[in-house]
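Researcher: Let's try something more involved. This one mixes different molecule types, so please make sure each is placed in the same coordinate frame as the others.
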Amino acid sequence: MADEKGPVEIVQTPVELDYTYTAGQAATRFLKGVEQGKFLGQRCPVDGLVYVASRGSSPKHGVPTGPDTVEVSDKGTLISFSIVRIPSANLSVEPPFAAISVLLDGADSHLMHVLDECPLEEVRMGMRVEAVWLPKDQWTASMQNVTHFRPTGEPDAPFDSYKDHL
Amino acid sequence: MAELCGVVGIGQTEHRAARTDVSMAGLLREAAERALEDAQLTWKDIDAVVIGKAPDLFEGVMMPELFLAEALGGAMKPMLRVHTAGSVGGSTGIVAASLVQAGIHDRVLCVAWEKQSESNAMWALTISMPFSVAVVAGAGGYFAPLIRGYIRRSGAPDDTGIRVALKDRLNALKNPYAHLQIPDVTFEQIEQSPMLWDPIRYLETCPSSDGACAMVLSSERLAEQAPTRPAWVHATAMRSEPTMFAGRDQVIPRASLDNAKALYEKAGITNPRQQIDVAEIYVPFSWFEPMWMEGMLFAPTNEGWKMTYEGATAMDGDMPINPSGGVLSSNPIGASGLLRFAEAAMQVRGQAGEHQVDGARKALGHAYGGGSQYYSTWIVGSDKP
Amino acid sequence: MRDVAIVAFAQSPSVRSDTQRNEVEILMPVVAEVREASGIPKGEFDFICSGSSDYLAGQSFAFVAGLDAVGAWPPVSESHVEMDGAWALYEAWVKIQMGYADSALVYGFSKCSLGDLPEVMAMQLDPYYQTPLWPDAVSMAALQARQCLETGAVTAEQMADAVVRSRANAKSNPNAQLSGDVDREKLLAEPTFVSPLHKHDCSPISDGAAAMVLVAGEKARQHCERPAWITGFAHIMEPMDLGVRPLTESRSTAEAARRAGVDAAKLDVAELHGPFSHQEILLEQAIGIGSSTDVNPSGGALAANPMMAAGLIRLGEAAARIHDGSAATALGHATSGPCLQQNLVCAMEGR
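Model: All components are placed in one shared frame. Result:
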């Protein structure tokens, strides 16, 4: 029964659960490369396409990637982007910022990161970009080693060169 | 081989940002009791219950159907819990229908829901793994680059999304259950609303809603005795593909096209735009209307936007899309797909009130989820298949 | 009803904590093995269904990674239940019954090691009344065990014997986590863990995965020499609240067994999913299992319990006894929810 204070509408139950995630074998190979300042791709044994960063399998074929690795460039093409203007608790950067999909040279899969050192109104598809690394003495086995991507100043890549990756 | 299945009862809640007037059980019962009332049945008439919702972290309860079992009349009955990401509402309807179509049960209640106000969905969607950089802000952040890809590929005019939003927001004014009701909404108002995830504006985005939807599905024999004309299930289809692989088309994924083909083949449809009278399509961001016009084969590649532009998808167009106001107007995530299925059934039962499409006899319900990778659809008709 | 058979089953070893492999990497070889065993190549399954839990994985949409493990390309007709894989098998069986599929691939997986499992399981309870008190899963089971012991529904000796049987049977199961020769008296003399439960009365915490293949009709014989034909399949839910249902019996198991047409007297093998020793006894009683039935030849959940796969594994282990000809009739059981809230029974036979 609701009394003069009104009904109980909210029960607050703070929940704190700790998890220890497993990177897995493929991500370990990738992160060990990042620890050395390199992006290591892994081939699908069926179609030979290079995954950066592999999550364990070639999703099309359901087979493990690797164990051999192939180093790809830390430069690539910005194939799509969004300007994120609203905050979210989990974000590692402050909005507004450019969230980008990058197709690294030598890779067949793209990864998401942040573009900086570029006015937001100039961000565009096809832009050539490169990874900006932390000082070497701060490298760990983590994607945090790359603080962001920035434009290289090279001419834009033609749409046809990346349209099949959208 | 499959038995016929008919929708004999439909119910939905009032969808709001926070339904603090009801518990989770209360929310689900509101929809379920309305569906039972529509079918003129009671809890005792139900043989099995199928529950669907999106990730458990949205409410902070692990497998919540367990604690809801009793409130949903599930005690000593079979209960299934479906979860196929954003398409889950549709999948829930399909699983419930399959229990009837397989001849296992005569009457199945399905309920799909979300009560996002009880936790933080934006957080739940983007828990950052220690191995990656968190740059995706909720679903909008994920889908914005795909929309940009569509605009670039199709050459669609920049204001296509605004036109979709305007149409759906005007349609929502005819739907008393819709969450977002913006009287006298204008093109300029949408255009000037803040950019959240470029190119998605605030008013081109779905709200975050508390809500539930329920349906009672019945075998042919019992559906024929129903007090209101049933909506007959003509076909159902589900398709999935991986989130990401080298060379994946994320804009109009093959799973969408395969799903559409499979659905039409089962329903005996050769020209969907002509043979389907109305469709409720899962459009959480306005630009997904033109994208799914192509993805559901209503329009040729790169021409989906023309249907919006020419008014074909309006209530009085030749292919009305989302007369209910769609996901842009109410988005209780887990329920959103089942709402599309239910609204399609309401249309062919002539129950849609002010947003009824005149003479609708065959309707399509659609849902998608994950990284545009899960699809569930059905076609229902006034006539038996 | 169409004749449907389990034609292949595979599982990963269950381990306390697989710190090397993520879920995809655990699942991939299991799916490959079951495809190989059935002779059905990737891309030729009419339907795929899986079971997993986001709270066990500690992230939303944990099941999506499963698509990467099965290689869901070209796109597949597929569904997922936030339940044990045994219910995924049920959904697949329904799809075959309705004629939308003639074959299905089913799998379940989890890494229970990632979080504090008993605490994570408290998230399963009523969020308004129970979760704020954080009753952990072992304590809930202990309440039930206490009732069973006090009412005489189950004796301490029976519980110890279930553990002895599990450990002994698991010696011949390379995928089990706990096995060996243990002694009833020694078990009873051990200190209690959460009274009245001893540590050995509780299933271990496990990481693991399992997969299965269903085929309809006579075609099943092309994929398996001796298919395990499903003769009955049913599942039943009870209310969650421990105060409104009898805890010293499993009514839902009894009802599911009745609906599945189980004739307990003729059962050669029963694989029961009892995560706590007293629950194994309650399940035997509910189904009416007698001394002529070989119970949990695999060791059961007391030997390994990778949740979301453990129920499917029970069905798979039962089917395996039909496949190898050691049983003519078998039953697989799966449970979910606190204190045996929801139960599934799958009856099968070789012929």
